[in-house]
Write a structure and sequence with these properties.
The strands form 4 sheets. This protein has a 7-stranded antiparallel β-sheet with strand order 2-1-13-12-11-10-9, with helices on both faces. Strands 3-8 form a two-stranded antiparallel sheet. The chain is globular and about 55 Å long. The protein has 2 domains: 237 residues, DD-peptidase/beta-lactamase superfamily (Beta-lactamase, 3-Layer(aba) Sandwich); 124 residues, Beta-lactamase (3-Layer(aba) Sandwich), CATH 3.40.710. It contains 11 helices and 13 strands.
Length: 374
């Protein structure tokens, strides 16, 4: 794995990021490495394999696995209308057009379902361009961001469902917010707080002791930064937004974890899903869930030759050198990425504390090196 480590070490030397933790499994061989420091400055502690990171959106496949686990036990079904547990979503309005004023709406022609929320096709979420709807989400405090909103689950659900849908349910694609709303639905359907639900069905069975919606030991949490023209600026310190239980457990990207824990989840899915899912459920989790029209909406986020499944990106073609049909996983805005590549028999995780500036910012060199090392 020397070439992989060389790429990442070079980014530390170049000042792109203070440090990283990464794990790559090729076949049955696993290599793990942590390098650099947990914060800027020569006196800060060195990065360790048990350093905690805000893993952001690479938790989305965990949301998919949690949902399918509940489906298997009959708690809910993918095609259930969410209004059964979310009366706030019973009569949504739909914008007359993506850029229409918020008062130009029509009635939804079908209910929003659990599947819609997980697949990004509900109409609630972020689109690739600015619009009155996107500005209204920001004003209401429900636009996606790197830290959880200071709202309760009920407040979040009321505020998000109070804005119109960007499109008729099932007829477009929008990012992120549907999975946060799904977290409210799952908790209500199961009758348990979302952190307890995730611990009982995902992190507990997989032995992911360091994964939660907050850092049990903030001293192990890496400082988070955002790139600016003048260098890295502080985004969130160890004693910041993730140092205590949040008022809203953000299912789409609110988890703290370590490289070993993230590897455990993705490896379990790569090996058939046990003890969380069956192989058939893993196949459902990672199968393309979009139509051609929906895929065009998603392309600014998922990139060329890729699509979206039930909470995860999935490659359809080898459009880029490191891609392969069936390769699945995702990236996180705080500087994280994790993918399973069945064609190359690899499972790879990279955690950094440098936030991304956009969907295409960050990991091309790493994934090229991983593909070459397989």
């Amino acid at each position: 794995m020397g070439s992989v480590w060389g790429v990442l070490d070079g980014q530390i030397v170049a000042g792109r990021m203070p440090g990283y933790a990464t794990a790559v499994r090729v076949g049955e061989r696993v290599a793990v490495r942590a390098a650099g420091r947990v914060a800027l400055g020569p006196g800060s502690p060195r990065m360790a394999e048990d350093t905690l990171f805000r893993i952001a959106s690479i938790s989305k496949p965990m949301a998919g696995a949690l949902t399918l686990s509940l489906v298997a036990d009959g708690v809910l079904a993918l095609d259930d209308p969410v209004e059964r547990w979310l009366p706030e979503a019973a009569c949504p309005r739909v914008l007359a057009g993506r850029d229409a004023p918020l008062d130009r709406t029509t009635a939804a022609v079908r209910p929003v379902t659990v599947r819609h929320l997980l697949a990004g096709t509900s109409g609630w979420g972020v689109t690739a361009h600015d619009s009155p709807l996107r500005r209204e989400m920001s004003a209401r405090g429900v636009h996606p961001g790197p830290v959880p909103p200071g709202l309760t689950p009920d407040e979040f659900a009321a505020r998000l469902t109070g804005v119109p849908l960007a499109f008729q349910p099932g007829e477009g694609w929008a990012y992120d917010s549907g999975i946060d709303l799904l977290g409210v639905v799952l908790a209500r359907a199961a009758g348990k707080p979302l952190p307890d639900l995730l611990a009982g069905r995902i992190t507990g069975p997989l032995g992911m002791a360091d994964t939660a919606f907050w850092a049990a030991d903030p001293a192990r949490l890496a400082t988070s930064y955002f790139p600016t023209p003048d260098g890295l600026a502080l985004l969130d310190p160890p004693d910041g937004a993730f140092a205590a239980p949040p008022s809203f457990a953000k299912l789409s990207g609110g988890l703290v974890s370590t490289v070993h824990d993230v590897l455990r989840f993705y490896t379990a899915m790569a090996d058939g899903g046990a003890p969380v899912l069956s192989p058939a459920q893993v196949a459902e989790l990672t199968a393309d869930a979009l139509t051609d029209a929906q895929r065009r909406d998603a392309e600014p986020f998922v990139g060329p030759g890729a699509s979206w499944a039930l909470g995860t990106g999935v490659d359809l073609t080898g459009a880029l050198p490191w891609m392969a049909p069936g390769r699945w996983g995702w990236t996180g805005g705080t500087g994280t990425t994790a993918y399973v590549d069945p064609a190359r028999d690899t499972v790879s995780v990279l955690l950094t504390q440098r936030a991304m500036t956009g969907p295409r910012d960050g990991f091309d060199e790493f994934w090229t090196a991983v593909a070459n090392a397989a």
